[in-house]
Amino acid sequence: MENTEQVPLPESQDGKNIPKVINGWAFFDWANSAYALVITVAIFPGYFLDLTADTVNIFGLRISDSTLYAWSISLAYLVIAMLSPILSGIADFGGRKKKFLRFFTTLGALACISLLFFTGMETLWVGVLGFILATIGFAGGIVFYNAYLPLIATEDRYDDVSAKGFSYGFIGSVILLVVNLVVIMNYSWFGFPDGLQAVPTAFVMVGLWWLGFAQIPFKRLPDEKPQGKTAHLINKGYQELKKAWQNLKADNNTLAFLISFFCYNAGVQSVLFLASTFAEKELGFSTSGLIMLILILQIVAIGGATLFAKISGRKGNKFSLIIMLIIWTGICIVGYFVQTGLDFYILAVAVGIVMGGIQSLSRSTYAKLLPKDTPDTASYFSFYDVMDKISTVVGTFTFGIVEQLTGGMRNSVMAMAAFFVISVVILSVVKIRRMSA
């Protein structure tokens, strides 16, 4: 009789490639991706604008509610950028990954639940502070989540294991987003007088989902022994950044790519973070309409990432990146003129096509530009991650300041187009030495 029992994946002698551990690691993506999609992109932006006055007085400065939201993102990522070298040093050399993974997860989940107490202008500080802390918890946890990959898988399995985490995150976050859509659209079933008052249930569900499912990786991921004093580890992270910068500034080609990346990532992250506020404020989207919009965007993003991976395989990374950046520029220009909800849905499809591809291809392109057989890839990628976060600060702050000075979010969208145009010009002179096969 033929044996139909599934053959387990081979385990290496040092305890890597264990299916139970890898699946547990992937469940962290399932847990925390709900915050990234459900809260920061789909639900909280519109809710924040609905509960906040059009103009807010912050330390004597009168700013629009959407500018305050954009600058809240800027402040969160500024803190993350400052902490990132410290966290990377601890993650790489400290032997305390699980401890810090648990801390940032707990911080993020509880801060997310605290948004339940943001009910209007009198509790605006709760909404701003809770959102900032939850975002810091989310981003801080990812540092230690990523750092576990070399501990649980051999190098030949990195791509497969990483893809598993991404797929778990996508499926989990979409499931919870659909559940929240059902609650908000059918608010009367659950005893709410209107859809707006049903929204805070999402904050509680996401926080409990995040903290609850994170217990799986906390239980399955291996423990480590501390390897050094914390003070030394803090210095180590900044030393790694300094070492990477000393090497990069002597390589004009890679430096040009990083400048281009900085510019277009500022635009990409701003569009992704602030598209919902634009849709709510400029086009009058409801929360349920925003959720439907994000679901469409997520589904299209899967096909878009696959499409540009194939284009990159045939034409090379540079060609693919330039095509995507031209599309991003077009999205911003069209976004300036968009007037109807249907137009914005079509625009969301275009964003979905280039959303996933631009981020994954940027990282792989950077890897191809690094010195061949370099032993210091960790320091180079720490530098890349800091550039990613600082560009998010610059992009979202610029989005807010342009709206504040000109009185319109459409002008902010056009400012993002300028970031993309500059990045195309710089990228055009970059030479990628090892092209895709």
Features:
mainly alpha; Growth Hormone, Chain: A; two-stranded antiparallel ribbon; 2 strands; 2% strand; globular
Structure explained in plain terms:
This protein has 437 residues and is mainly alpha-helical. The chain has two domains: 13-228, Up-down Bundle (Growth Hormone, Chain: A), CATH 1.20.1250.20; 236-437, MFS general substrate transporter like domains (Growth Hormone, Chain: A), CATH 1.20.1250. Helix content is 78%, strand content 2%. The chain is built from 16 helices and two strands. The chain has helices at 19-51, 65-93, 97-114, 124-147, 149-152, 158-185, 195-198, 200-213, 215-220, 230-248, 252-283, 287-315, 317-337, 341-369, 377-406, 409-427; strands spanning 55-58, 61-64. The chain has a two-stranded antiparallel sheet with strand order 1-2. A hairpin with a 2-residue loop joins β1 and β2 (61-64). α2 (65-93) crosses α10 and α11 (252-283) runs antiparallel to α16 (409-427). The protein is globular, with a radius of gyration of 22 Å. The protein starts with 18 loop residues before the first helix and ends in a 10-residue tail after the last helix. The model is unreliable at 1-13 (pLDDT under 50).
